[in-house]
């Protein structure tokens, strides 16, 4: 059985707690489609799968629910989120408001050290573009954008943006925008940061969010399409019994 200090290890070889390990395993399973939208997450079943006690599993599920990655329903348990265009549109409406203001406040404060940090993050990101590395890519994506947001110097703003990014994660983990395309967008955004182009960066982020909105809308439309009717198989006429010789 895994221990609290040694169960799993992050790929950068830093120690990982058992609860963090379980959180990451659950996030990966959901991102890879092992659990569908609205699926129940049984602590006992997960504990058996991970070969741990149910206590750290419940802690991990509670942590994911607090971050908005999954839902907790009173007296019913933990469930994967029901993803919808309406919810994503609502999240992105408020992200647009906050991120636009954050960029306006942060851009004049961006330093060359910040640009160097962004460049380093994108170098790491360029090696995490496969589907297997999707969750690591998303963490680098977040670090890239929060270099600028941190420059605002507002803990309240960072808290609000952190929450909105957390509850967006199930959508981004579902690969509505492929990592390769996202990385190319980031390279263009780095050029905008280098030029201190506030309006250009705001427009780039609007386009980025708009594309993901459209992807979710199209995804739901495909799910709502009725399945093609199956053609009835023509029955062969029953063979007539021969009356010859009767």
Question: Would you write up a description of this structure?
Answer:
The protein is mostly helical and 246 residues long. It contains nine helices and three strands; from the N terminus they run H-E-H-H-E-E-H-H-H-H-H-H. It has helices spanning 18-31, 43-50, 54-66, 85-106, 112-125, 134-150, 155-173, 179-194, 198-224, and strands spanning 40-41, 70-73, 77-80. A hairpin with a 3-residue loop joins strand 2 and strand 3. Helix 8 (179-194) runs antiparallel to helix 9. The longest helix is centred in the C-terminal third of the chain and has 27 residues, at 198-224. The chain is globular.
Largest sheet: spatial strand order:
1-3-2
Secondary-structure-derived class = mainly alpha
Q: How much of the polypeptide forms β-strand, as a percent range?
A: under 5%
Order of helices and strands: HEHHEEHHHHHH
Count of DSSP H/I helices: 9
Report the helical percentage: 55-70%
Low confidence ranges = 1-14, 240-246
- Mean of residue pLDDT values: 83
Categorize the overall geometry: globular
User: How many beta-strand segments?
Assistant: 3
Radius of gyration: 24 Å
**In angstroms, what separates the terminal alpha carbons?**
79 Å
Described by strand count, sense and barrel closure, the largest sheet is: 3 strands, antiparallel
């Amino acid at each position: 059985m895994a221990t609290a200090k040694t169960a799993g290890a992050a790929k950068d070889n830093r120690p990982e707690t058992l609860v963090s390990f379980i959180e990451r395993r659950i996030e990966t399973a959901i991102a890879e489609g092992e659990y569908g939208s609205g699926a129940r997450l049984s602590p006992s079943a997960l504990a058996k799968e991970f070969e741990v006690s149910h206590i750290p599993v419940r802690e991990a599920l509670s942590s994911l629910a607090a971050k908005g990655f999954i839902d907790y329903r009173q007296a019913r348990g933990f469930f994967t989120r029901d993803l919808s265009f309406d919810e994503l549109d609502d999240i992105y409406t408020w992200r647009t408001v906050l991120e636009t203001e954050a960029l306006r406040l942060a851009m004049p404060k961006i330093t060359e050290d910040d640009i160097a940090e962004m460049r380093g993050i994108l170098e790491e990101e360029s090696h995490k573009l496969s589907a297997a590395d999707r969750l690591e890519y998303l963490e680098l994506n977040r670090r890239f954008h929060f270099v600028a947001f941190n420059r605002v110097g507002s803990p309240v703003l960072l808290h609000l943006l952190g929450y909105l990014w957390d509850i967006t994660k199930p959508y981004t983990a579902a690969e509505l925008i492929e990592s390769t395309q996202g990385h190319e967008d980031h390279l263009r955004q780095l050029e905008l940061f280098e030029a201190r182009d506030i309006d250009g960066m705001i427009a780039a982020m609007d386009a980025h969010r708009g594309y993901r909105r459209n992807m979710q809308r199209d995804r739901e439309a495909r799910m709502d399409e009725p399945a093609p009717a199956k053609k009835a198989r023509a029955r062969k006429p029953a063979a007539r019994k021969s009356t010859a010789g009767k």
